[in-house]
Write a structure and sequence with these properties.
two-stranded parallel ribbon, two-stranded antiparallel ribbon, MBL
Length: 134
C-alpha cells in the first residue's frame, strides 16, 4: 500500500518519469498512496513533499495475502468452542459489513465492527481465575 519503507524511496524517483511504469500488486486500501495512484491522481505525497505522477500506473488484481470471505467463514466454522463474539477490525467498510451479515446469518454469531481507538473489555482478572487455564 506504499505506506512506508524502501518503496517510498523508489517511488520518489520513478513516479515522476513518464517512461516508467509503477506496477501495483494486491489490494490498496482507501487513503493509502497505492489507492491514490490507482485513482489516477496527478500527484502523490511522500515524506511531506508532492511528486507529480508522470509514470504509467498499472495494477495486477487478484493477488492478496489476506483470506477472503469464504476462507474466513471456513476458519470460524473450525473452532471446537464457538466464539461468543466476533470483532471485525480490518478492511473496507462495505466489505466489513458484508462479512458481518454473512457471519451473523450463516453462523448465528454476534459481530461487532470496531471503530478506530474504540475500547472493548475482553475479560477480567476474575474471569481468568475461574477459567480452565493452567
Amino acid at each position: 500500500m506504499m505506506t512506508g519503507g524502501r518503496v517510498l524511496e523508489y517511488l520518489k524517483h520513478y513516479v515522476v518519469n513518464g517512461r516508467n511504469t509503477v506496477l501495483i500488486v494486491g489490494f490498496q486500501a482507501g487513503g493509502t498512496r497505492g489507492r491514490v495512484l490507482l485513482n489516477k491522481n496527478h500527484e502523490v505525497k511522500i515524506h511531506g513533499r508532492y511528486y507529480p505522477v508522470n509514470a504509467g500506473i498499472l495494477e495486477i488484481q487478484g493477488l492478496s495475502a489476506h483470506a477472503d470471505q469464504l476462507e474466513l467463514l471456513k476458519w470460524i466454522r473450525k473452532f471446537k468452542k464457538r466464539p461468543k463474539q466476533i470483532f471485525l477490525v480490518h478492511g473496507e467498510p462495505g466489505a466489513q459489513d458484508a462479512l458481518r451479515v454473512k457471519i451473523q446469518t450463516e453462523l448465528n454469531l454476534p459481530v461487532k465492527i470496531m471503530k478506530q481507538n474504540q475500547d472493548v473489555l475482553l475479560f477480567t482478572c476474575n474471569s481468568l481465575k475461574n477459567s480452565n487455564l493452567p
